[in-house]
Design a protein that fits this description.
8 helices; about 0% strand; globular; disordered C terminus
Length: about 220
């Protein structure tokens, strides 16, 4: 039996595949640009990185500044490509009026909360973490409920959402345990931050979808 919600019954128009919203494009372009300037710094940006030990000492700025840094060119470029691929449907959901500001806030919040989660898991560790991967995984989590839904948000327990989420987390766990990722160059991969960012994104996009009146896709229920 199908449940209908008249508020969200109007079909949404198909979005052009390669029409990347401006805020997404700017975020993606900022990654290699910022990494270029990062290389010019005497400490390669180490003072802006985030370490879990910072939380004990009341230093919170690294939660935000660490996502401006990357470990290598492949690291920065991979995150830039992923931001374009998965950020586009999220930005389109938010629309054109206040949407760009909301998208930026969403992106930064995913990144900061991902770093915070990593810090709580590794409480007291002095090992620094850099990269926008936590924020990007927030976009991946949100896009998991948007891809193929024609501008709507799929229910959290939709079979496709569950399947894609398990697949993403399996890949994330594999890269974390095996330690393989292009551009990692032997560095430890903060897979826990990726997971936290993903969870933040996949949960937050539901309320935001309703707020922006693009709706939740109601699936047919079977007994």
């Amino acid at each position: 039996m199908a449940r209908q919600n008249s508020r969200f019954d109007t079909p949404q128009p198909h979005e052009p595949m390669f029409n990347v919203p401006l805020p997404v494009l700017l975020i993606a372009l900022s990654m290699p640009v910022l990494f270029f300037f990062q290389q010019q710094l005497p400490d390669m940006g180490a003072s802006m990185a985030f370490a879990p030990a910072d939380l004990e000492q009341g230093r919170w700025g690294g939660l935000f500044t660490s996502m401006l840094l990357h470990a290598s060119w492949p690291h920065a470029l991979m995150n830039a490509v992923a931001a374009v691929a998965f950020g586009a449907p999220v930005a389109r959901l938010f629309g054109d009026r206040i949407g760009p500001s909301v998208f930026l806030l969403f992106y930064v919040s995913c990144g900061a909360l991902a770093a915070l989660g990593y810090g709580l898991i590794h409480w007291g560790s002095p090992n620094p973490m850099v990269g926008a991967s936590g924020a990007v995984f927030g976009l991946i989590g949100a896009a998991t409920r948007l891809l193929g839904a024609h501008g709507r948000v799929r229910p959290l327990l939709d079979k496709r959402v569950i399947a894609m989420s398990l697949a993403w987390m399996a890949v994330n766990l594999f890269t974390g345990v095996v330690g393989y990722m292009p551009g990692a160059e032997g560095a430890q991969i903060a897979w826990e931050a990726h997971a936290v960012g993903f969870v933040v994104g996949i949960l937050a996009i539901g309320p935001l979808g309703r707020l922006f009146k693009r709706g939740v896709l109601i699936e047919e229920e079977t007994a």
